[in-house]
Amino acid sequence: MDLVANVLLAGGASPAMIHSVAEIPDFTPKTHALYVNVGTLTPDWLPAIKMAAQVANDRNKPWVLDPVAAGASGFRLAACLELLKLRPTVVRGNGSEIMALVKGSADDNSKGADSTHESTDAVAAAKSLAQTTGCIVAVSGAVDIVTDGQRVVGARNGVAMLQKITATGCSVTALIAAFVAVGPSRPFEATVTALSVFGVAAEMGMATARGPASLRTNLIDALYGLDRASVLRHVDIRNM
Ligand SMILES: Nc1ncnc2c1ncn2[C@@H]1O[C@H](COP(=O)(O)OP(=O)(O)O)[C@@H](O)[C@H]1O
Ligand SMILES: Cc1ncsc1CCOP(=O)(O)O
Ligand SMILES: [Mg+2]
């Protein structure tokens, strides 16, 4: 939650981390987008998550799902599949998470929050998930893949060391939610752009990083200082 909230602030958004059913009816209507992350899911939290998604839907607000470690346990997978029925605007996971959602069963070989698949292994799964759910589906990795079930785009910014900082996946999903909040009528473009901007900031931060801890700090600084010219100079988005 620390990195997620700080990435959102650096990107110009205004985060509030809310868990309680007591607060969701008041809080969710005030937002421009809802971000649901199941990273530390418990049975107690699930009703609040569902309530928030329902309020977002009732108010026509976009919402974004990060199915952290979806294949690691039956409980988590079932929860993610229930949440998909509430039709998030965007789902962003790593290769293993997106493949688990499509397979619909927990994976004995799951590594938990980390992926055992390349994003490119999950292109067919991502397209299928987008077609069956109507969501924009993004798969992160060396190439970030975004699909609406028809179009498939690859965004190639980023650095491998992001995998050595916990919650960078969670943070880029949060940034997607922020970008979708700004451009709710174009969630596909907002998703690709958020992934690219996060990747460009990571590349800039990597220039002076000495390891994951300094990259984490530099990433927040680079995102905060990023301007349009730098994004346009570095961004690498291609049709796949
Ligand atoms: N090998 C890589 N090269 C460049 N960027 C990467 C690489 N692997 C992951 N990333 C980037 O790291 C961020 C988190 O992605 P990822 O590690 O796939 O998510 P998660 O933490 O959910 O598993 C994304 O911005 C992604 O583009
Ligand atoms: C380590 C960990 N455990 C539960 S959630 C979480 C963070 C996962 O974040 P990310 O998917 O961005 O690496
Ligand atoms: Mg993740």
From TrEMBL:
EC number(s) on file: 2.7.1.50
Cofactor field: Mg(2+)
Pfam families per the UniProt record, alphabetical: HK
CDD domains: THZ_kinase
Pathway recorded for this protein: Cofactor biosynthesis; thiamine diphosphate biosynthesis; 4-methyl-5-(2-phosphoethyl)-thiazole from 5-(2-hydroxyethyl)-4-methylthiazole: step 1/1
Protein name (record): hydroxyethylthiazole kinase
Signal peptide, first to last residue: none
Gene Ontology molecular function: any one: ATP binding
One GO BP: thiamine diphosphate biosynthetic process
Reaction(s) catalysed (UniProt annotation): 5-(2-hydroxyethyl)-4-methylthiazole + ATP = 4-methyl-5-(2-phosphooxyethyl)-thiazole + ADP + H(+)
Record HAMAP family: Thz_kinase (MF_00228)
InterPro entries the UniProt entry points to: Hyethyz_kinase (IPR000417), Ribokinase-like (IPR029056)
Keyword vocabulary terms for this entry: ATP-binding, Kinase, Magnesium, Metal-binding, Nucleotide-binding, Thiamine biosynthesis, Transferase
